[in-house]
Amino acid sequence: MSTSAVVHPLVGREYPPVCRRYDARDVCLYALGVGTGEESPHLVFEGHRDFAALPTFPLVLPFPDVLGMGLPDGSTLDDVLHGEQSLVLRAPVPVAGEAVSRCRVVAARDKGAAALFDVEARIEVDGVHVATATYSTFVRGAGGWGGERGSPRPDPEPTGEPDLVLEHEVSANQALVYRLSGDSNPLHADVETARRAGHERPILHGLSTVGTAVRLALESTGGRLERMTARFTGPVLPGERIRVSLWTDGPASWLGRVDVVGREGPAVAPLSLVLTSP
Q1: Contact 45/51 with Cβ under 8 angstroms?
Q2: DSSP state, 96?
Q3: CB distance 108 to 80 below 8 Å
Q4: How far is C-alpha 168 from the chain's CA centre?
Q5: Rounded to an integer, what distance in angstroms lies between the CA atom of residue 184 and that of residue 12?
Q6: 149 Cβ contact partners less than 8 Å away, ≥ 6 residues apart
Q7: Do the beta carbons of residue 256 and residue 242 sit within 8 Å?
Q8: Contact (CB, 8 A) for 80 and 106
Q9: Which of 31, 114, 187, 192 could serve as a FRET partner for 11 with CA atoms 20 to 30 Å apart?
Q10: Which residues are tagged catalytic?
Q11: CB count, 10 Å around CB of 86?
Q12: Cα separation, 179 vs 185, whole angstroms
């Protein structure tokens, strides 16, 4: 950081712990919200002998509260876009338990007319550190305080044909199901709100798109998720078909993108996954 840059007063702020008890119903509901169907009964039927929570499930545990974190005075949800997301798994995700998320603002980038705020959440379940997630939020009208702009992070550019191509048809109600896991932003349910934001109709949650892509990758490779990062670059509408393209980027790493079939420009790029062998 340059010596002339001003650190935003929100950086370093810690919030009261977010506590949420969840059970098998929440785990199943999340799985349905990322497009899981009858082909994966162990994710949607609590009576299955291999019943399990998807590894991206921890992202929803603090999310309703994270929506209000890292917002400067005067900013509202109408000013907010989910820009980037990361997740690091520390332990297997239980199918039920008492979750405690400890959140703090770890960075702020001044983009002039807007700003990016990074909120890190340490997520524990029954006292065990299960995951660390970082939510990067783009806030319109929040820039201009004289802070560091932040160097653009170069997007890795995979070459050649992808090693794995997966497709998924987003159901007409996937966004309505996903919002029941805690993201109640009306952008994903209300036509008028979506139109004010420049969309023809409500859009799918970025985390539903990413959760779907990760689920497809795990089902196809048989691996277990260790970490992932994603940048949201375009909307997905319920009823559209998405294509997940993945390139191997090392023994356990995959680099990818998510596109809407028939539309130019990615919805998520880059998408980076680190998987362990089954």
Answers
A1: yes
A2: S
A3: no
A4: 18
A5: 27
A6: 109, 110, 111, 112
A7: no
A8: no
A9: 187
A10: 183, 188
A11: 18
A12: 8
CB contact at 8 A, 58 and 133: yes
Half-sphere exposure of 236 (CA within 13 A, CB side): 33
Name the 3-class secondary structure at 38.
coil
Secondary structure E strands in the chain: 18-22, 80-89, 97-110, 114-125, 128-140, 164-169, 224-232, 241-248, 253-260, 266-276
pTM for the model stands at 0.94
Count the Cβ atoms, other than its own, within 10 Å of residue 120: 17
Structure tokens, 188: 């994903």
| Tokens at 162, concatenated | 């992808």
Chain CA centroid to CA 132, Å:
12
Dist CA 154 CA 150 (whole Å)? 12
pLDDT tens, the chain, 278 aa long: 445 789 999 999 999 999 999 999 999 999 999 999 999 999 999 999 999 999 999 999 999 999 889 888 888 877 888 999 999 999 999 999 999 999 999 999 999 999 999 999 999 999 999 999 999 999 999 999 999 987 666 677 788 999 999 999 999 999 999 999 999 889 999 999 999 989 999 999 999 999 999 999 999 999 999 999 999 999 999 999 999 999 998 888 999 999 999 999 999 999 999 998 77
Residue bearing tokens 């009858």: 38
255 beta partners: 247, 272
- Upper half-sphere CA count for residue 163 (Cβ side, 13 Å): 13
The reported pLDDT for the residue numbered 1 is 43
Predicted confidence (pLDDT) per residue in 241-275, tens digit: 999 999 998 888 999 999 999 999 999 999 999 99
Q: Is 110 left (phi over 0), alpha (psi -120 to 50) or beta?
A: beta
> CB atoms < 10 A from the CB of 9, how many?
11
